[in-house]
Specification:
Elements: H1 3-8, H2 13-66, H3 98-102, H4 116-132, H5 137-143, E1 159-163, H6 168-185, E2 188-191, H7 233-239, E3 253-257, H8 272-278, E4 283-287, H9 293-296, H10 300-309, H11 316-324, H12 329-343, E5 348-354, H13 364-377, E6 399-406, H14 410-421, E7 429-433, H15 446-460, E8 464-468, H16 472-481, E9 486-488, E10 536-538, E11 546-548
Length: about 550
């Protein structure tokens, strides 16, 4: 359009310029308004998404609670209990350990509340650990004791140093026991996790670390720590004819060997009259693969304190393991991805842990018969309908998600096929899942331990749990979940039996190899022939073992 044409249309150059400017201003204002609207909309969408995730998790729990049968007695997860009834302390950096305060979103609220005395004791311990933890002035001063031949009395902190033995389950139950001993004796617990346990757990105590510094002077001796060690407490007693009063000056450190193969001198640790001497030793280096907490309840000088800490005797490990062990962010990612993919929408979650110690003595076919017999006898899963190919429509259909934790894939494949090939008699939908199958336990492998820790936590999210006899892996899962499991007796004689999985009497782990005498008796009595206390019983899955139960 030329100038002459513009003039004929009555559009002057000055007027045209004003129109262009007005148009640009209007366009700019509209653009800014759209950005503001879009931003507020996104904020609303974000808030809705967060509310939806929380609501969906709560809704899943509510649906599970509505469809619970007699096998699940936990209350609904209606209110998120981030601090687990006062067990945990507030104030941690949540991003550094997301699971610490978010694990309660995936689990039901535990009906087992920690005593106010236990919560108070833990807060006091946290202050002690902060004051005496690695590289503090008190730690450095106590470290100087190690260069002396005897205690000089200048240290104001005492320590128990935990060192690893055997697999992940053994390590967790023995660490929990060591922490309980530290609580009872006013010691600080430090742990030597090693490279294969890196990034498995979060730090449990606020504003400090429980990791033993790599430059600890005795670290190079830990690997050879075994029964009969020259610096062990057992050897010290043996050298002095089991009379500790003849030792004039306590040493700056002693080894406590409390693993399954300790000898009769090592086991004298559990005698009450020897505890007074140990109180004067600044450094106790402890090695164990056992849940030795039950025997601490039989030491008279500890009993009153333990009664106040744990009026409910079968919750000792339940509280200790939830307090100490939180999955690292890497492990928590594995857990939550599996949970959201396979478990979150299920009405009921069932965990099955299969641990076979000798595959030749326990053939796959026989173990599978035992598992299916367990499901049917205890009515943990419905039977399949051999006459039909399609289940009739039902408004009350229940979805059940079965998680199988095993080193081997065969049990998962067989059970999955049972519920894939035929419908269930009541129309329930059964999904069967297995996070991994490593084929063999891999000692010293960091990724293997992270995956194992993830699977323990996944099992602990179950409403119903079946664990294998003697398995510490299963013990940890039942403790985290607050579950009283059915104990699968893995057959070793080539055939299954008619009692495949009796119910455990408590959710406490078993102390497999305790001393065979009772403290208060003038004559030694075997623990497998007499109950030394109302809350101590012989284990269901280990005739030599003892466990804590309610009176």
């Amino acid at each position: 359009m030329g100038i002459s044409q513009m003039e004929r249309l009555g559009i002057g150059s000055n007027r045209f310029s004003k129109m262009v400017v007005s148009f640009l201003i209007a366009f700019f204002l509209l653009y800014m308004l759209s950005l503001a609207y879009r931003s507020s909309t996104f904020d609303l969408i974000g808030e809705f998404a967060r509310a939806h995730v929380t609501g969906e998790m709560a809704g899943n729990v509510s649906r599970a609670s509505e469809s619970e049968d007699k096998h699940s007695s936990h209350p609904e997860r209606v209110v998120v209990d981030k601090l687990l009834g006062g067990l945990l302390a507030p104030g941690f950096d949540e991003e550094s350990c997301i699971s610490r305060y978010q694990s309660s979103l995936c689990r039901r609220i535990s009906p087992h509340k920690p005593s106010s005395y236990l919560a108070s004791k833990l807060r006091k311990y946290e202050e002690l650990h902060k004051r005496c933890g690695p590289h503090t002035e008190s730690y450095n001063r106590t470290l100087e004791e190690l260069s002396s031949s005897h205690v000089n009395g200048t240290a104001d902190c005492n320590y128990v140093v935990w060192t690893p033995a055997n697999g992940l389950g053994n390590r967790i139950i023995s660490t929990a026991s060591s922490f309980l001993y530290a609580l009872l004796t006013n010691r600080v617990l430090l742990v030597d996790l090693g490279t294969d346990m890196a990034n498995v757990f979060c730090e449990p105590f606020p504003n400090t670390s429980w990791l033993l510094p790599m430059d600890f002077p005795l670290s190079n001796q830990f690997y050879g720590l075994r029964s009969g060690n020259a610096q062990s407490y057992g050897q010290l007693l043996k050298n002095n004819n089991m009379n500790i009063s003849t030792v004039s000056q306590p040493p700056p450190f002693l080894y406590l060997y409390l693993s399954f193969n300790n000898d009769e001198y090592d086991k004298l640790f559990y005698k009450d009259q020897n505890q007074g001497f140990l109180q004067n030793v600044p450094w106790l280096i402890l090695k164990s693969d056992q849940y030795f907490a039950p025997y601490l309840f039989l030491i008279p000088s500890f009993q009153q304190e333990l009664d106040k800490l744990f009026p409910d005797k079968e919750t000792v490990f339940h509280h200790l393991v939830r307090y100490l062990f939180h999955p690292s962010n890497q492990a928590w990612g594995l857990i939550t991805r599996f949970y959201q993919s396979y478990l979150a929408s299920a009405d009921q979650r069932i965990g099955l842990q299969v641990r076979v110690f000798n595959r030749k003595a326990s053939p796959i076919k026989v173990v599978l018969e035992q598992i299916l017999g367990c499901f049917q006898k205890e009515k943990l899963l419905p039977q399949v309908d051999e006459e039909k190919h399609i289940a009739p429509p039902s408004k009350n259909r229940t979805s059940r998600a079965v998680t199988i934790a095993s080193l081997y894939p065969e049990y998962y494949e067989s059970i999955k096929n049972v519920y894939w090939m035929r419908p269930t008699v009541n129309g329930d939908v059964i999904g069967v899942y297995q996070p991994s199958h490593e084929e063999a336990q891999q000692f010293g492998n960091n990724i293997h331990n992270i995956k194992a820790w993830a699977e323990i936590n996944i099992l602990s999210l179950s409403d119903v749990l079946v664990t294998s006899s003697w398995s510490t892996f299963g013990y940890v899962a039942q403790g985290l979940g607050g579950l009283k499991p059915w104990i699968l007796y893995v057959p070793t004689g080539g055939q299954s039996n008619d009692q495949p999985c009796p119910r455990a009497m408590s959710m406490e782990p078993c102390f497999h190899f305790p001393p065979n005498y009772y403290q208060n008796s003038s004559t030694r009595r075997r623990l497998d022939t007499v109950s030394p206390a109302p809350h101590i019983r012989q284990c269901e899955d280990a005739s030599t073992g003892i466990k804590l139960v309610n009176d």
